[in-house]
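Hi R.,

Here's the chain you asked about this morning:
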Amino acid sequence: MVTAEKNVLTHATGAAKPAKSESRSPSLNLRLNRALNLLLYINFCILAGTGLLLWLRLPPRRGGPTRPEAFGLGRHEWGDIHSWLSVVFIGLIAAHLVLHWKWLRTVAAKQHPLLLWGGLIAGLAIVLAFLLAPVN
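And the predicted structure, written out as tokens:
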């Protein structure tokens, strides 16, 4: 914030802006955030692709002599891949929340605390409902 105010002040007075440091590397948090966002995007794309493949191209069948395959894998193998990618996605989302926890507490919680905490609690309740649902 101080840097932005300093740049505005020097720009308004006509003073030259200080040269950017070419040797300065992005902070560790910024690099982690970029890598995490890339992994989330790639994982989401593969999840969407495998989900659409299972839904539209490899629909469940009631038996038959042939087993449809895509890239050499059948419906059950693709289902396993899709499930494990979902587990990875959950882990990446958890890491994303941890990385941005300070922002969530300082900005989002102060502006809309009920929405933030309500959303987090509702999301946790949904996950627990599926995890603890009775299975026959």
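Helices lie at 2-13, 28-57, 75-99, 101-111, 113-132.

Let me know if you need anything else.
M.
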